[in-house]
Amino acid sequence: QVQLVESGGGLVQAGGSLSLSCAASGVIFNINSMGWYRQAPGKQRELVATITNGGSTNYVESVEGRFTISRDDAKHTVSLQMNSLKPADTAVYYCNVRAVQVSGVREFWGHGTPVTVSS
């Protein structure tokens, strides 16, 4: 059974950096995209960044220029480098993998890793 495990979250001062990683415990076939979502207290979960099978990236406007998403196919991981962190970035960050199965699109989710940015 495929599982996604996030790591790298923690407490950081505003202006600092953190690197999040997501590792898949098993092989996921026919991956279309991988991404990171986040959910702040009292807020809806939002997409932060995605990277497609072809390597194209997409970011929510609020993190553009500060965050970088990358993947390592050999290690079955997707990472999120977060620089110049702001208190508004405080949230639980979730790893997401989207795969195209014969029955349709299948999504896999991690359990989340909390990120807290202090003033």
Give me a quick take on this structure.
The chain is mostly beta strands and 119 residues long. It has strands at 4-7, 10-13, 18-24, 31-39, 46-52, 57-59, 67-72, 77-82, 91-101, 104-109, 113-118. Helix content is 0%, strand content 58%.
The helix-strand sequence is EEEEEEEEEEE
The gyration radius over C-alpha positions equals: 14 Å
Quote the distance from N terminus to C terminus.
Answer: 41 Å
Mean pLDDT: 94
Structural class: mainly beta
Report the helical percentage.
under 10%
Low-confidence stretches: none
What does the main sheet amount to?
A: 7 strands, mixed
> How many helices in DSSP terms?
0
Provide the β-strand percentage band.
over 45%
Q: Count all strands and give the number.
A: 11
Q: Write down the overall geometry.
A: elongated
General description of the model:
The protein is mainly β. It contains no helices and eleven strands. Strands 2, 4, 5, 6, 9, 10 and 11 form a seven-stranded mixed sheet that branches. A four-stranded antiparallel sheet has the order 1-3-8-7, with no helix packed on it. A hairpin with a 2-residue loop joins β9 (91-101) and β10. The chain is elongated, with a radius of gyration of 14 Å. The N and C termini lie far apart (41 Å).
